[in-house]
């Protein structure tokens, strides 16, 4: 169980959060994308349930479509039952990690040099730990929030949620009864930008949009035969040419509302000109630092070939060749994207979606956004919250199908020189201890005023 050692001015949630995150990381919940080799979710989910039950929560443990794919739900009643419920969600699975590549063991949860280290430290056991810490504090201390809160800890996000959020939405919508809004990962973190007067400003990026996520299989078929003969219909050649055309293609620049609002705010703070018509928009974005990788990827659709498969012997022309392409599609662009892909790959290559998750976008306004802003400013008065679009995807894609309005808000105040985006799925993934303490304070304030 977590060790609670409160210091003066520090609440229970702050005192527990580092130990909770470290404990969560020690569960190896590596998601390989295959049922037979994915592990640890059940054990981690049962541990989470035990932490909630210890302070008095009634929990629901649900396996989502396959043995061991564990999910935990708990509810806390608010003072106004007439308001829609707010859900806080986090996924328990992580991508695999190779211990030999790491400075510390990726499933050690080591606390060293001011950081909590390990796979999942930022994706997303940091947020799971913060949610768990605040949920435990509210229940233990009898704190009643202004609206009902639903705490959801789910499986399989790293493989698209087929055995997690998607299954839950399709088969157990009762678990989300009354939920109208939700907050999850990859938002609320700080980005320090230079201002024209020589000072800096921390922007806190709230995720209001996500590109669509699609994993596409391309298949070419030809005539099998001996490798020494002449072949005009070689499946490998047909596929390679199609993949090369697709991988080299640059999709058109499209500025969605969330991206436009981010660029406007960034321009106001930095004095830089992020005019979409500029021939060097990418160069200007680069001046924002590492976040440019994410923002740049939200300016256009992408289709990146990631896997190739063909043949079984050096002197045999195979009948079939396959490729997998990672596609990320802007809101409202699905039909145009698919038409462009079909033109690029040509009639001799067939395509099919292995995974297809829709894009999502909401507006940066309303009471919940005001509550996020107020919570950040209460603990970082000189900051500014801004919307942005995530180039990847989260479980919000599934929850939005139930009409839930979703945001990314996992608050962290980060060192200005930390390459935060590189930590996601990266070697030596880690989260600053001070960022966890800050985020816990902000999350508590947010939930008390949501």
UniProtKB/TrEMBL annotation:
Q: Which keywords annotate this record? A: Hydrolase, Metal-binding, Zinc
Q: Which cofactor does it need?
A: Zn(2+)
Residues in Peptidase M20 dimerisation domain copies:
208-336
The keyword Metal-binding is assigned to this record? yes
A GO molecular function held by the record: hydrolase activity
Q: Which residues form a coiled coil?
A: none
Q: Does the keyword Metal-binding apply?
A: yes
* Entry-linked InterPro entries: ArgE/DapE_CS, Bact_exopeptidase_dim_dom, Peptidase_M20, Peptidase_M20_dimer, Peptidase_M20A
Similarity comment: Belongs to the peptidase M20A family.
Q: PANTHER family from the entry?
A: ACETYLORNITHINE DEACETYLASE (PTHR43808), PEPTIDASE M20 DIMERISATION DOMAIN-CONTAINING PROTEIN (PTHR43808:SF8)
Name of this chain's protein: M20/M25/M40 family metallo-hydrolase
């Amino acid at each position: 169980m977590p060790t609670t050692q409160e210091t003066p001015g520090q609440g229970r949630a702050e005192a527990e959060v580092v130990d909770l995150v470290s404990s969560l990381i020690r569960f190896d919940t590596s998601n390989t994308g295959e049922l037979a080799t994915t592990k640890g979710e059940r054990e981690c989910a049962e541990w989470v349930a035990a932490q909630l039950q210890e302070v008095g929560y009634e929990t629901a443990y649900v396996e989502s479509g396959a043995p061991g794919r564990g999910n935990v739900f708990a509810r806390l009643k608010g003072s106004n039952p007439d308001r829609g419920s707010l859900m806080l969600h986090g996924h328990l699975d992580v991508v695999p990690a190779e211990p030999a590549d790491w400075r510390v063991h990726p499933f050690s949860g080591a606390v060293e040099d001011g950081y909590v280290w390990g796979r999942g430290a930022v994706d997303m056991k940091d947020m799971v730990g913060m949610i768990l810490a605040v949920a435990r504090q509210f229940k233990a201390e009898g704190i009643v929030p202004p609206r009902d809160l639903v705490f959801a800890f789910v499986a399989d996000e790293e493989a698209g949620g087929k055995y997690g959020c998607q299954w839950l939405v399709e088969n157990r919508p009762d678990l989300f009864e009354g939920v109208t809004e939700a907050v999850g990962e990859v938002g609320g973190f700080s980005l320090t930008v230079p201002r024209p007067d020589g000072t800096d400003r921390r922007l806190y990026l709230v995720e209001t949009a996500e590109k669509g996520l699609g994993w596409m299989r391309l298949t070419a078929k030809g005539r099998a035969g001996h490798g020494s003969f002449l072949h005009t219909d070689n499946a490998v050649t047909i596929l390679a040419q199609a993949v090369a055309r697709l991988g080299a293609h640059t999709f058109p620049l499209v500025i969605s509302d969330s991206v436009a609002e981010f660029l406007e705010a960034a321009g106001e703070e930095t004095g830089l000109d992020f005019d979409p018509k500029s021939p060097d928009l990418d160069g200007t974005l680069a001046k924002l630092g590492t976040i440019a990788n994410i923002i740049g990827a939200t300016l256009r659709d992408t289709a990146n070939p990631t896997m190739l498969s063909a043949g079984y012997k050096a002197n045999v022309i195979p009948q079939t060749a396959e490729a997998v392409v990672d596609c990320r599609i802007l809101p409202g662009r699905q039909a145009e994207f698919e038409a462009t892909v079909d033109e690029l790959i040509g009639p001799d290559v067939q395509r099919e979606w292995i995974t297809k998750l829709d894009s999502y976008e909401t507006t940066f306004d309303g009471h919940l956004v005001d509550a996020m802003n107020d919570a950040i400013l209460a603990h970082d008065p000189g900051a500014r919250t801004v919307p942005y679009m995530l180039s990847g995807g989260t479980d919000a894609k599934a929850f939005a199908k139930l009409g839930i309005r979703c945001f990314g808000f996992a608050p962290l105040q980060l060192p200005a020189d930390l390459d935060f985006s590189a930590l996601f799925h990266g070697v030596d993934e880690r989260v600053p201890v001070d960022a966890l303490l800050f985020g816990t304070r902000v999350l508590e304030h947010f939930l008390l005023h949501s």
